């Protein structure tokens, strides 16, 4: 009867749909698994350099350290700074892993947070940080710690990758809190603009390393902004500088 044919067709369609969903699930899992594998392999690679530097200074100290105070001093300083580097790497890798679990979201005054972070940087560096506070109070929904991390990463990068003054702004635009950091540094090549948000990606490895970079800052910032339903973007011009912009939905402004 026509009814039977109809039922058969329906179950065939259902099986087809199920198969499609199942295949999509598998692809998704595979994709995640591959990403995890790449992350673990990149992370091991990044840790290997400081470990081998520490190891070679330890051996140097053992062989030639006795009665050689300048070598002892140099080695200890190197070991100390490589240990700092490893601990920063581990801390940032943990931070990336933690961002996956959703943080507790509260109303956060981002105007206050930006002002506080700028003050901290002004105290720590003798660099000009221009900041015009347009907004007195600007509430967004989020984690204070994580948002502070984003602000910190962008200001830190602007200072690291330029020598001139930097400009920090916070304004309200179309129900979005728009935070931006502008620098007058070397700029980022157009073809690398997307890639800098990838884990461990660095335009200039040596420069990043010299300034204590890990290549994880922007990946962390991007993950946090995404978690906050926001957007992060960059525009850059070689030899002119870069502007990083983060926009987040406003809950309340004054
Ligand atoms: P890093 O720890 O190396 O600074 P990030 O993830 O924060 O890692 O940034 C990735 C790379 O993007 C940097 O190594 C640098 O090459 C580039 N970059 C980031 N911010 C800037 C900037 N303001 N000006 C120029 N290059 C930048």
From TrEMBL:
Keywords: ATP-binding, Cell membrane, Kinase, Membrane, Nucleotide-binding, Phosphoprotein, Transferase, Transmembrane, Transmembrane helix, Two-component regulatory system
Protein's cellular compartments: Cell membrane
Catalytic reactions on record: ATP + protein L-histidine = ADP + protein N-phospho-L-histidine
Highest taxon of source: Bacteria
GO molecular function: ATP binding; phosphorelay sensor kinase activity
Enzyme kind, highest EC tier: transferase
Membrane topology reported for the UniProt record: Multi-pass membrane protein
Residues annotated as domain Histidine kinase: 42-252
Ranges where the HAMP domain occurs: 1-34
Chief location category: membrane
GO CC annotations, alphabetized: plasma membrane
EC nos: 2.7.13.3
Annotated protein name in UniProt: Signal transduction histidine-protein kinase ArlS
Lineage: Bacteria, Bacillati, Bacillota, Bacilli, Bacillales
Full-protein positions shown: 199 to 452 of 452
